[in-house]
């Protein structure tokens, strides 16, 4: 009789351990980080999702709501540019993000997706006169805190 109880407890412990391992394995491949609130565009809210693909590249997905049209900023600009700060402390231009008015909605939304071989530790968006600049200007619109992928 004791042998049966021990087997049942062992099976329960084994299943519990397996479930925990599965949860941690999913968590280690994706990180969700929110942008901090911004005095430049106070209505803007957004998140960044970073996943690691099978080739060990970083899939960066950005979703933003309430992002003002770039030409309405003071001073007016021409492009929103997405930047990453890498784990090597290098800042890279990932491309331009475009805000669009949703059909039937007044909220301006923006989305952006890119694959990067460099490991990001911070993501930020600046307003620039030229979307192909190689270094970020002073007009930081949204930024995350530093984060660490698991």
List keywords for this structure.
five-stranded antiparallel sheet; 1 helix; single chain; 150 residues; four-stranded antiparallel sheet; alpha+beta; 41% strand; 17% helix; Immunoglobulin-like
Strand content: 35-45%
Low-pLDDT runs of 5+ residues are none
The CATH architecture can be given as: Sandwich
Separation of termini? 44 Å
Q: How is the main sheet built?
A: 5 strands, antiparallel
Alpha carbon gyration radius:
21 Å
Structural class: alpha+beta
Q: What's the helix count?
A: 1
Average pLDDT, rounded to a whole number, is 85
What's the number of extended β-strand segments? 9
Determine the fraction of residues in helical runs and give it as a percent range: 10-25%
* CATH class identity: Mainly Beta
How would you describe the shape?
Answer: elongated
CATH fold topology? Immunoglobulin-like
- Spatially, the strands of the biggest sheet line up as 1-2-3-7-6
SSE topology string: HEEEEEEEEE
Blueprint (SSEs and pairs):
Blueprint: H1 2-27, E1 30-34, E2 45-52, E3 58-65, E4 79-86, E5 91-97, E6 99-101, E7 108-116, E8 120-128, E9 140-143
Antiparallel strand pairs: 1-2, 2-3, 3-7, 4-5, 4-8, 6-7, 8-9
If you had to describe this structure to a student in words, what would you say it looks like?
This protein has 1 helix and 9 strands. With 150 residues, it is an alpha+beta fold. It has a 5-stranded antiparallel beta sheet with strand order 1-2-3-7-6, with no helix packed on it. The longest helix has 26 residues, at 2-27.
